[in-house]
Design a protein that fits this description.
Layout: E1 8-11, E2 18-19, H1 21-34, H2 42-46, H3 53-62, H4 73-88, E3 96-97, H5 101-110, E4 114-118, H6 126-132, E5 141-143, H7 156-165, E6 172-176, H8 179-188, E7 191-195, E8 212-214
Parallel strand pairs: 1-4, 1-6, 4-5, 6-7, 7-8
Antiparallel strand pairs: 2-3
Length: 234
């Protein structure tokens, strides 16, 4: 399909632009070790990514996706502090951009699209990661999971972007790898693109009815008014 009359493209971060799971796993296992608890495999922790720092810490303490509602609040605050402190110092150890992300974003920006990040990751981590992965200067606006009172799948972050940039919902597209992204877009009545390679808890992203689904980030170029004379170098 083709998206017409679009001005703003909103991207999720983790699982969409970057594979941050290895460094998140490192931070979670550091936290668990400091607390004298059992650590977990990177592959299991990968399945916990996508709902922000507080949720992944609760999953680490619970050892599963469905968090234990009876976690001691003092323990949780201690664990969260350990996790955030360690992760802040180790944001780009093994984190990488997915294939074709950097080139595709540069092409879209050069074609005049306004690029935005809306992530559930804490805001303070966004800029250091963008700098570390050479993605700085591409995004007009970034929202973290703590930038507003609610986060995805609530539609408010997407509606806030529209208000902040002076555009309509119809002029925007949400691009993400998780149901949180697509559910937020659906609730905002915004069109969306689902990506199959990220963190969606083993679910088919198509089940949440994005307007189109791709398995390669560069494929989104075909849906926008982009010249065919471009070169993907990453």
């Amino acid at each position: 399909m083709k998206f017409n009359n679009k001005k703003v493209i909103i991207f999720d971060l983790d699982g969409t632009l970057i594979d941050s799971a290895p460094d998140l796993a490192l931070a979670i296992n550091h936290m668990l070790t400091r607390l004298g608890r059992e650590t977990f495999s990177d592959s299991l922790i990968r399945s916990w990514v996508g709902n922000g720092a507080q949720v992944i810490v609760k999953r680490g303490l619970s050892g599963k996706v469905d968090v234990d509602d009876n976690i001691d609040p003092v323990l949780f605050e201690q664990a969260l502090a350990i996790f955030l402190d360690f992760y802040a110092k180790n944001l780009c150890i093994d984190t990488v951009t997915y294939p074709h992300v950097r080139s595709t974003l540069k092409i879209l920006k050069a074609q005049g699209y306004r690029l935005v990040i809306v992530t559930n990751k804490p805001f303070d981590f966004i800029e250091p990661i963008l700098i570390g992965l050479q993605l700085e200067g591409l995004f007009e606006l970034c929202l973290g999971g703590d930038s507003l009172p609610v986060r995805k799948p609530d539609p408010l972050p997407l509606l806030h972007v529209c208000e902040k940039l002076g555009v309509t919902v119809e002029q925007c597209v949400m691009v993400g790898d998780s149901k949180n992204d697509i559910l937020a877009a659906n609730a905002a009545k915004m069109q969306s693109i689902g990506l199959t390679y990220g963190y969606n808890y083993g679910e088919d992203i198509g089940e949440h009815q994005p307007d189109t689904v791709f398995s390669d980030f560069a494929d989104i170029l075909a849906t926008f008014a982009v010249s065919n004379h471009y070169q993907l170098v990453d």
